[in-house]
Design goal:
- The protein is 39% helix and 16% strand.
- The chain has 416 residues and is an alpha/beta fold.
- The chain has an 8-stranded mixed beta sheet, sandwiched between helices. The chain has a 4-stranded antiparallel beta sheet with strand order 10-11-14-13.
- The longest helix has 22 residues, at 303-324.
Length: 416
Amino acid sequence: MEDGKKQNLDIETPNNITIKGIIGLLMGNTDCNDNRKVISLGIGDPTAYSCFHTTDVAQEAVVEALRSAKFNGYSPTAGLAPTRKAIAEYLSRDLPYKLSSDDVYLTAGCTQAIEITLSILARPGTNILLPRPGFPIYGLCATFRHLEIRYYDLVPDKGWEVDLEAVEALADQSTVAMVIINPGNPCGNVYTYQHLNKIAETAKKLGVVIIADEVYGHLAFGANAFVPMGVFGSIAPVITLGSLSKRWLVPGWRLGWLVMNDPDGSLKSPKFVERLKKYTDICGGPATFIQAAVPTIIEQTHEVFFRKTINMLKQTSDICFEKIKEIHCICCPYKPEGSMAVMVKLNLSLLKDITSDIDFCFKLAKEESVIILPGLAVGLKNWLRITFAVEPSSLEEGLERVKSFCQRHSDLQNRC
C-alpha cells in the first residue's frame, strides 16, 4: 500500500490529470494475489462486454474498404469528401438548416477535435470557460495552449444544469469560448431544449463561441430527448465535436469530427477557416480506410441497433442507481438519463480511515479489485464517477464489492 500512497501524492490538480492516467495507476494498485477478476467501473469503453458490440454493418464496411486496396494512401487533411458529406447529412437530420461538406473536418477521435478547436481559438491573454465537473482533456489542452481556464459549476440539484449567472460573472472581453458537454460526461444528464436555448442566448450576450461536445450524442434514455446544440447555431456560433465512438461502440477506431454550426457565417471568416485548415495539415486525421467506411456505416445502420444500445444503457443505469442506494457512504443526487456514467457524492464522515476520494479509490482497487474514477479527476473533490456501461452481472458484482468495502471501513459512531 505504500506504493499506492506514493502515487496518490503525484496527483495535484485537475489540469495535470487524465482519466487514462489515473485508471492506469489504479490498475497498478490492484492486488495480484486477488483471484477475482478486476471490474472496471472507471472508463467509458464498454467494448470489453459482449452486450455492447458494434453492428455487423460497421465491421463489414471497414473490411470492405480495407480489402478494396483503394484507401491505403493519405486522405485530404480535412478528410475524404464522401465521408465529410455523409457526416454533414447525418448531423443535418436534426437541424433546422443544412450543413455542407465544407463545415465538417475529420479528426482522430473526439480528443483530437478538442485539441484542434482549442488550438485555433487560443490567443495570448485569452481564457475559456469549462464545466465543473467536466472532461479533463479540455483542461489539459487549454494548459498546453496557454489558455486561462475559468471553471463554471454545474448544479447537481437541477439536473447538472449550467449555472448561467456564474458564466456571466466569469466571462470578460478575453473569453473566447465556453464548453458544453451534452449528454453529460461525467454526470449522465441530458439538457432540455429550453436550457440549451438559454445557454445559446448567454453565449450571444457574451460574444463567445460554444464548443458543444456531443460525443455521447443520441445516447439518451430518460425524460429529455437529445437536442444538438447546433439547433441554436443562428443565435450563437457553435463548434460541434463528435465521433462514431460511443453511438456505434467503436472507440478504438478513432473516427471523430469537428463541425462548424454557423449558418450566419459569424465565425467562418476566411482567416479562421484558413487557420483551421492549416492546423489539420499539422495534425493529420483518422486512418483513410476507416474514413472510407463511414458513409456505408451511417447509411446502413438500422435503428434496431441503436435501440438495443439505449435499452441496455437504460437497464444498467437503473441497476447502478438502485445499487448505489444500498451503499451508505455515497449518494446520487441525479438519476442518469444519458451517456455512460454518473457522479455520486462521497460522505467521508461515515468512513473511519478514508481521507479523500483519491484514497477511497486506491484502497478500493487494492482491497476489492474494483476501479472507480475519483471525482478530483473531473473537477469535484470527494465525489466519484461510476461508469455503468458494463455487463449487468459484472456491474452488480462490482457495486456489491464497493458496498462490502464501505461496510468494512464504516465509522459506526457516525452512522444514524
